[in-house]
Write a structure and sequence with these properties.
The complex is a heterodimer of chains A (about 90) and B (about 550). Chain A has helices at about 5-15, 15-20, 25-45, 50-55, 60-80. Chain A is mainly alpha-helical and about 90 residues long. Chain A has a domain at about 20-80. Chain A is elongated and about 70 Å long. Chain A starts with a helix and ends in an 11-residue tail after the last helix. The model of chain A has no long low-confidence stretch (mean pLDDT about 85). Chain B has helices at about 1-5, 15-35, 40-45, 55-65, 65-80, 85-90, 95-110, 115-120, 125-160, 160-210, 215-225, 250-265, 270-275, 280-310, 325-335, 340-375, 380-405, 415-435, 445-465, 475-500, 535-550. Classes of the chains: A mainly alpha (about 90), B mainly alpha (about 550). At the A-B interface, α1, α2, α3, α4 and α5 of A face α2, α3, α10 and α16 of B.
């Protein structure tokens, strides 16, 4: 084993990332829920001008619903497959 | 023609700014929350080699989806038409698959922390130091290009003065990388990936609807731009003229082989994401998971580019205020109501930050582990290098702010980036590929291959092309040819030098050259990694088949 491999293996054994880093899926889930709610509400009663601009498409509504769905997908994923945290090392 | 009078200013309101503000808060929050995971330098620079594959994979593609890439590729679409797909299907997918299936076992298995560190193991200190310095220099330049692109876009869209945009975005990136290290950069890239999609999809759908769907789009463009504008290969026969200024041979060899392999397989800003994966299987799957979104993202930039070419027939010419790079911002202004507009603005800023953060987080790693810890201040304890990494992150961001102005002299930002890549990445790729497959390649040959390849690409571009010695119609075409010249020169010089200098002792090549293995690397596969949908070979060949199939509708 080379010096480099020894050094990196040693650092790997002391690493705290796996044990202490939070689950990103939760953040994505909540952010897209919030965005989804905001944009869906903006799309519920579009003004004539907004509708005309988007060529008659309820774009806020559809985008909002899409983002809500993405947010829910991530939260359900976390629920179904929670992270298995490796035993955190004491400090 | 009201957009001429009003410029590209977007009608943003409080709702849009709320969406943007939420995003900034979450970005910073991720930085602070990732802080407690940073205990060693390996955590700070490589996330402790512990990330799952889906996260590193999405970060891998997001690191490439910078604002310059999005605006530049939409610009390429508006200028050259469907030919923009070459940058994705032939100019990305084969290289990503090659990185995963062929190179990753050596990269990840040898436990190197950076691309230059691999050169140190395989060749010698001169190749290592040269590539580290070139990479550090290039990443600051490219981060500067990103900053400049952001500043002009934000000034046009939101009316912020350029320096405000540079300071806000620069310091945001500075803060979250300094605090949370690579984990924070990678997590933010994954988030950015989804926000960018949420921004591009509505623009694409509304744009298509506006011009009468795909049929309306193609029939308008056929009339105004001719049939070749809507095919991938039309007019690319050798000797034929086309807008791209390249023939099929330079596209396949220059873009598809040399430029693309150089970028995807040796650019540390990309490879770093894979090196942070938790095991070899996850590292191999990183570029493969990225390949699938990459195949389809082209539609989200090409279609807005084409739509802009229909709606603004004079785009990019003297008769219009709009340049090709304005394609996406123009559609945002024309089509998006408040709400989705806020998402799109956030997505653009997110794309900018993804591109810049990838360069900054790879710069700090190379500067600290490859330059500082090996040649300047050696053998200090690990906490010193974490501290130094944070300091150099700050210095790197400040330096890239300074270089932002360099980007202003090129009309097409993408051309500028590719010029840089052809000078720095191409010789790197030659040296890697020969070093990995030819045991006899000597210690000295790495350094001379790098020098010769870089020099040849520069001479071809700045002397032979710019001085008009050989007539190549466009910058893009010249880039492809320069890349091929750099590749050939690097390879020839490496072989020649190897024949006259001594090879590296066989024992030191274990795990670095094809046909050898790192000692002690018999890692057990993690539970579930043997599932069929996690097999790298299947994912890789699947991506190639899909990319090839995508060409069919645009080839006849």
């Amino acid at each position: 084993m080379s010096d480099l491999q020894r050094e990196v293996s040693e650092l790997e054994s002391k690493s705290a990332t796996a044990a202490r880093l939070f689950d990103l899926r939760r953040i994505i889930g909540y952010l897209f829920l919030v965005y989804g709610v905001i944009v869906t509400i903006a799309g519920l009663n579009p003004s004539e001008a907004d509708l005309a601009k988007a060529d008659g498409v309820h774009i806020n509504l559809w985008t909002g619903i899409g983002m809500l769905a993405l947010g829910l997908f991530f939260l359900v994923w976390v629920k179904l497959r929670p992270t298995t945290v490796p035993t955190p090392d004491e400090e | 023609m009201h957009y001429l009078a009003d410029g590209l200013r977007l009608p943003t309101n409080g709702l849009d700014y709320t969406i943007l503000a939420i995003y900034f808060i979450v970005v910073l929050g991720i930085g602070f929350a990732a802080r407690r995971s940073v205990k060693t330098s390996l955590d700070f620079f490589l996330s402790g080699r512990s990330m799952p594959a889906w996260i590193t994979g999405l970060a891998f593609v997001a690191a490439n989806l910078g604002a310059t890439e999005l605006l530049g590729m939409a610009a390429t679409g508006a200028q050259y038409g469907v030919a923009v797909v070459h940058w994705y299907w032939i100019g990305a997918i084969p290289a990503m698959v090659f990185l995963a299936l062929v190179m990753m076992p050596f990269y990840y298995g040898s436990k190197v922390r950076s691309v230059p560190e691999f050169l140190l193991q395989r060749f010698d200190k001169s190749a290592h130091l040269l590539s580290s310095i070139l990479f550090a220099f290039a990443s600051i330049l490219i981060a500067g290009v990103n900053l400049y692109a952001l500043a002009i876009v934000v000034e046009a869209l939101l009316g912020w003065p350029q320096w405000v945009a540079i300071v806000v975005a620069g310091f945001l990136v500075l803060a979250y990388i300094t605090i949370g290290g690579l984990s924070s950069a990678i997590y933010n890239e994954v988030l950015q990936f989804f926000v960018i999609l949420a921004a591009l999809i509505p623009i694409t759908i509304l744009g298509l609807k506006k011009v009468g769907g795909w049929d309306g789009l193609t029939s308008s463009l056929q009339q105004s731009h001719g049939d070749n504008f809507l095919t991938a290969w039309g007019g690319t026969g050798i000797g034929e003229a086309n807008a791209l200024g390249a023939n099929w041979l330079t596209i396949v060899l220059g873009l598809g082989f040399v430029l693309s392999f150089g970028y995807w397989t040796t650019n540390f800003a990309e490879v770093q994401r894979a090196l942070s994966a938790k095991n070899l299987s996850a590292a191999q799957r990183t570029p493969l998971i990225a390949a699938f979104p990459k195949i389809f993202v082209v539609f989200l930039v090409m279609i807005p580019g084409l739509v802009a070419a229909v709606l603004v027939p004079k785009i990019g010419t003297a008769g219009s205020d709009l340049t090709y790079n304005d394609a996406i911002p123009y559609l945002m202004q024309e089509l998006l109501p408040n709400g989705v507009l806020g998402i799109a603005v956030t997505g653009l800023l997110a794309a900018f930050m993804a591109g810049m953060a990838a360069n900054v987080s790879s710069f700090n790693t190379v500067f600290t582990t490859d330059i500082w810890a090996k040649y300047v201040v050696k053998d200090r304890d690990d906490t010193y290098y974490v501290k130094f990494g944070r300091l150099i992150t700050a210095i790197g961001v400040l330096a890239s702010i300074g270089t932002a102005f360099l980007a202003s002299s090129f009309s097409n930002i993408m051309g500028y980036l590719q010029t840089l890549f052809s000078f720095f990445n191409v010789p790197m790729f030659v040296v890697f590929i020969i070093g990995m497959f030819w045991k006899r390649a000597s210690m000295k040959s790495g350094f001379w291959g790098l020098i010769a390849g870089t020099a040849a690409a520069m001479v071809n571009y700045f002397v032979i092309y710019k001085q008009g010695i050989v007539d190549i119609p466009t910058d893009q075409g010249a880039n492809f040819v320069s890349a091929i010249a750099g590749f050939v020169a690097g390879a020839v010089v490496m072989v020649a030098v190897s024949l006259f200098t001594k090879p590296k002792p066989e024992a030191e090549l274990a795990g670095l050259v094809y046909g050898t293995r790192s000692p002690g690397m018999e890692e057990l596969p993690e539970k579930g990694d043997d599932a069929w949908y996690r097999k790298p070979a299947l994912l890789g060949w699947g991506a190639i088949v899909i990319a090839a199939a995508c060409y069919i509708p645009y080839s006849f």
